[in-house]
Each structure stands twice: as C-alpha cells, then as structure tokens.
What we know:
- The protein is α/β, with parallel strands linked by helices.
- It has two domains: 5-28 and 285-391, Alpha-Beta Complex (Aspartate Aminotransferase, domain 1), CATH 3.90.1150; 32-283, Type I PLP-dependent aspartate aminotransferase-like (Major domain) (Aspartate Aminotransferase, domain 2, 3-Layer(aba) Sandwich).
- It is 41% helix and 17% strand.
- The chain has helices at 5-10, 31-47, 49-55, 57-71, 84-92, 111-124, 141-147, 170-179, 199-202, 228-231, 268-284, 286-305, 332-340, 355-360, 377-391, and strands at residues 19-20, 78-81, 102-106, 127-131, 152-158, 184-187, 206-210, 222-226, 244-248, 251-254, 310-312, 322-327, 344-345, 347-350, 365-370.
- It has a seven-stranded mixed β-sheet, sandwiched between helices. Strands 11-12-15-14 form a four-stranded antiparallel β-sheet, covered by helices on one side.
- Helix 9 (199-202) links the parallel strand 6 (184-187) and strand 7 (206-210).
- Helix 12 (286-305) runs parallel beside helix 15.
- The site of pyridoxal-5'-phosphate has 12 residues, from helix 5.
Amino acid sequence: MTIDISRIRADTPGCEDLIHFNNAGAALTPAPVLETVIGHLRREAEIGGYEAAAEAGNATARAYDSAARLVGGAADEIAFIENATRAWDMAFYGFNWQRGDRILTAQAEYVSNYIAYLQVAQRYGVEVVAVPDDEHGQISVEALERLIDSRTRLIAITHIPTNGGLVNPAAAVGKIAKAHDIPFLLDACQSVGQMPIDVDAIGCDMLSATGRKYLRGPRGTGFLWVRRNWIEKLEPPFLDLHAATWTGPDSFEIQPDARRFENWETYVAGKLGLGAAIDYALDLGLPAIRDAVYARATRLRNGLASLPAYTVQDKGVEKCGIVSFSGAGHDPADIKQALADQKINVTVSRRSSTLLDMTAQNLETMVRASVHYYNTDTEVDRFCEAIDAVAS
Length: 392
Ligand SMILES: *Cc1c(COP(=O)(O)O)cnc(C)c1O
C-alpha cells in the first residue's frame, strides 16, 4: 500500500502555500480532523456542551478503540489526557517511589521527563541513571542490562528524541525489561503516528503519545496506554470524580481501568478530533506512512550532506522523519527566520530540551526540519535550494 499524495494534499489545505517541515512540533491537520473539531464545537453552541457530548457518545467510544488499535492495546487500557507530558506524568508519578529506588533512562531523554526524575530524586532519594549510548548514538542495550540491579524500579526512555532522527531500539530495551521483570515506560510522542507501534512487540508496560505531532490531531490532546496488569498498581497523583468514586464518608474507590488516569472535564471536540486523526492514520496504514516519511527524510539528509555549509547531526542505526543539522557560522535561529521569510517552517532545538545529549555533542542549538508523508520530493528539493542560498 502506498500513499496517494495528491489526495492527501487536497485534504491538507495548509500545505498549499507553505513548506511545512515542523511536523515534530505540530503537523498540519487534515480536513476530516478539522471538520470533526469544528463540527463538535458547533453542536456545543447549538444544543449545549453536555448534550453534545451525549450525542457524540458513540464516536467518543470509537476513539478509544482506535487509539487501542493504533498501539496494539485494548480500549480499557487507554486514557485520553491533554498532552503527552501529563499522560506520561500520570504513569510516572503513579509509582510509590522509595528511597534508594533506581530509574534507568537514556541520554536523549526529553526535558520534562528528566525534570520529573530529578524531582522524585530530590523528594524521595531515588537514583537516576542515564544509560550510555552505544557506538551508533542510540541507547546501549548492553550497558542497560549491566546497570540493572535489585533496586531498579523502572526503565523509562524516549523512543524518538525531540531533537533528531534517532530511533532508539525500544524492542531490545523491552526484551531486557521483561527478562528482569522491570516495568518499562516508553515516551512514544514522536513515534506514534510516524510508524507502526505495537506495545507487545516492543514489550513496554506504559506508553505516552501526543495528538498534534505525527498523528496530525488537534493541539491540547494526547493519550496514555497502560498494560492491564499495571493499571491497578499505579495510583494516579491526582484523582477526581471521574477517576474515582466517593463510596462513603471516609472511602473512595479508584477506577479499575485506565479511566483512573483521566479527569472529568475535558476537551471533547479535541478528543473526537484525535479519534478522527487516528482513524486517518490507520486508513493510510502505518507501514506506508513510515515508508513515505523515511523516504522524504533520506532525500533531505542526502541533500543537506551535499551542501558543505551544513552538518547533519542525526544519530542511530535507524533514522526517522526528524532531520537535525547545524550550519557553519550560522545561528539556527537566523536560519529558521530566513526560511520563514520564504514560507518554509522549521524549528530550532535547544540544549535544554535534551540536555544530556546536546551537551555530549557540544551543541547549543540545531535546526530541526521534520518531514511528513504529505511533504513532496519537490518540497525537499526546494528546501535544499533555499538553505543553500541562506549559507552563501
Ligand atoms: C513533544 C514531546 C513531548 C511532550 O509532548 P506534549 O504533548 O507537548 O506534552 C514529550 N516527549 C518528546 C520526545 C517530545 O518530542
């Protein structure tokens, strides 16, 4: 199955007069997503928010099924949460951290996750260890296995870091986690929607994802998947009338399924829009999406490699749709602006977003150009011409 790019672009009004290479920031939403969100907002205005939610009950239930299908889980293992960070938090802060517990993570870990590690380290005396990279710049699975000890309570890594093309070997990590019976939390924020994800093949126990990046969903949406046998072992840091039931003057019961990680008041239009975005991706097929994204990214890396002014910084054996580079003598912020003036969207990755990785590479900032399946080879070639002109 291949992607009919002209049909897809016809569905994507935003791609008509700009080159959007900021898909790892927020991708352009396709028409069915936009229509779903706006349609629901209109119903809220016409008949009332609660009434519109009731009317959309079946569509909401289908969104859980779709999210479950997307990652290979079950609908009652899915919680819709307002973004990937909070989704991840609801799992991470659900552990009953004890002094001396050890968390194993990776060098390219995302800033918000690492801040959470440091917070529980300071609060409870937990030890955080960032496993070294292997010679390809991905997490070393040998080092990971060596660092596991009897105090290791969690393995938590980022699948695809926010700052580059690296795809960490998540399934190899999952195999080790399983062999040592240690829970595995995967930040799949940049991989969900970009490639096939199967929680059983990966062997993770918890996975977080966002709506607006490769899934092309609305902003302010995300979800958490938690393997059934882990749900009741995690006590969410916050509870409300949706996550729990007040059963008596001195008692409450937490929901037995992944609803415990959600809260009651929610962006219903966004949830429905995310469901539509997931269905859109499932219809195209995640293998076809990955192949198209990788093909465009490879073309872009090759184009950049032929320009002496730039250095591609992507690491790892497998490289995805995020292309990061630096330009000799050019501030990435100026490069971004020069491209924006020509209606080309990229972004700048800063050291503080992946501090360990950027410090090890001695990089302060990089340009991040992240491509999607709706981008064309022509756009990639125009991008390379534009960036060449910036350098001269
Ligand atoms: C963007 C990103 C996040 C945070 O996602 P939000 O939806 O903004 O909370 C987490 N991890 C990685 C790797 C990201 O790129």
